[in-house]
């Protein structure tokens, strides 16, 4: 069982004078996520590296799976850390490592040594050759292949010598919390959880707003969205979810406005309400799962009309993605099967047979004039009766 993990990152390394802020954020995020894993862990930063040291028994698979969900990590290397006690001691540790890690010795290998500590008495090339020779002596079935090795044995000469041969991919991205906060319009569909995941991957902290329409939408539809938020929270951390009762607003729009304009007008009022909570939460923008042309409300003309009511930026990370690419990400982050459960939300119930695909802002605003008598009161009631839930990872 490995006692330590070397955590690799990429973009953080080019951050210049602010690099330490991103490293510190990543360390804090690792600590936060590992609190849910059985075992004792110590996360430390040392000479441009981040290490997770374990103490006592722990669940290796759960630990790795957890680290693979932490944005900012590009590689997770189970590592052996040893004191520098001379070359012979190093060679013995490497041979012991190979013996434990690879029971079947019929493989090709290459030794890749790097000296972060330049006062080490051997050059990197000398270490490669000498350690490789010791491995061949200990395990004659092995052979060296410097071009296409089956096993790459890494040796990093640091204050503690690092020995590893496996790099498990991480999710990449930037550490959570380094890029501000944004409000996700979350529904029970496939797209919006993926949009939240993708923006969170760039270091953005998420809040979310969900529009519920009882009795036209069931409690199961609401629970479905909460379950989706839990799955996204495995990557993003805790999500503050605002559940807005949108029924009276929808019925009023349905009563007063042309039915072919229902979807666009409802979207505009959803954006207004979501923006209220976004401003309250000091968000820097809103996120939707819209993609050009996917449905009638997502044509360029429709998106422009929807945007017109917003004062803060609206980010649409899926805007140019094909549906199958979105589905692939949903499957990867384990939201797809939940998203396709057959519980309708408010966006799918009050839908016209022939919705307008090229709405005119002038006509939409004219239709909205029919709502002036009650719409402000209905919006305020919806805001005042909103249920706010703190959603943690499942």
From TrEMBL:
Chain residues that bind ATP? 185-186, 210-211, 267, 289, 298
Q: What class of enzyme is it?
A: transferase
The UniProt keywords, alphabetically, are: ATP-binding, Cytoplasm, Nucleotide-binding, RNA-binding, Thiamine biosynthesis, Transferase, tRNA-binding
The Swiss-Prot or TrEMBL record annotates one GO molecular function as: ATP binding
**Single GO BP term:** thiazole biosynthetic process
**Span of domain THUMP:** 61-168
Name of the featured protein:
Probable tRNA sulfurtransferase
Q: Per the UniProt entry, what species is this protein from, by scientific name?
A: Roseburia faecis
């Amino acid at each position: 069982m490995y006692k330590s993990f070397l955590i690799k990152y990429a973009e953080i390394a080019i951050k210049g004078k602010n690099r330490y802020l991103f490293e510190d954020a990543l360390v804090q995020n690792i600590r936060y996520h590992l609190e849910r894993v059985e075992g004792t862990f110590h996360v430390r930063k040392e000479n441009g590296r981040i290490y997770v040291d374990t103490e006592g028994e722990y669940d290796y698979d759960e630990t790795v799976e957890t680290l693979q969900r932490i944005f900012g990590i590009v590689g997770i290397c189970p590592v052996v850390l040893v004191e520098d006690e001379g070359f012979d001691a190093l060679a013995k540790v490497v041979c012991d490592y190979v013996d434990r890690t690879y029971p079947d010795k019929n493989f090709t290998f290459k030794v890749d040594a790097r000296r972060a500590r330049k006062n080490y008495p051997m050059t990197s090339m000398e270490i490669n050759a000498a350690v490789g020779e010791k491995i061949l002596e200990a395990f004659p079935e092995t052979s060296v292949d410097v071009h296409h090795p089956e096993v790459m044995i890494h040796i990093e000469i640091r204050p503690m010598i690092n020995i590893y041969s496996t790099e498990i991919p991480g999710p990449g991205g930037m550490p959570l919390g380094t890029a501000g906060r944004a409000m996700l319009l979350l529904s029970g569909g496939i797209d919006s959880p993926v949009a939240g995941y993708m923006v969170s991957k760039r270091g953005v902290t998420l809040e979310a707003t969900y529009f519920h329409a009882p009795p036209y939408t069931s409690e199961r539809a609401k629970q479905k969205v909460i379950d989706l938020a839990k799955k996204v929270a495995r990557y993003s951390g805790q999500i503050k979810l605002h559940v807005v009762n949108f029924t009276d607003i929808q019925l009023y729009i349905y009563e007063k406005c042309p039915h072919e304009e229902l979807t666009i007008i409802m979207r505009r009022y959803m954006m207004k309400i979501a923006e209220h909570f976004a401003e309250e939460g000091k968000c820097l923008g809103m996120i939707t799962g819209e993609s050009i042309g996917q449905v009638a409300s997502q044509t360029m003309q429709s998106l422009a009309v929807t945007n017109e009511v917003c004062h803060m930026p609206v980010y649409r990370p899926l805007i140019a993605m094909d549906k199958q690419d979105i589905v692939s990400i949903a499957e990867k982050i384990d939201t797809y099967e939940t998203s396709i459960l057959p519980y309708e939300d408010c966006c799918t119930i009050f839908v016209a047979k022939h919705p307008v695909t090229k709405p005119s802002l002038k006509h939409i605003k004219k239709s909205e004039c029919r709502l002036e008598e009650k719409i402000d009161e209905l919006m305020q009631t919806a805001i005042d009766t909103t249920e706010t839930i703190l959603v943690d990872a499942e």
